[in-house]
Amino acid sequence: QIRLMESGGGSVQSGGSLTLSCAASGFAYNDYCMGWFRQTPGKWREGVAFVNADGTSTYADSVKGRFTISRDNDNRTMSLRLNNVKPEDTAMYYCARVAGWWEYNYWGQGTQVTVSS
Question: 70 has which bridge partners?
Answer without folding.
Answer: 79
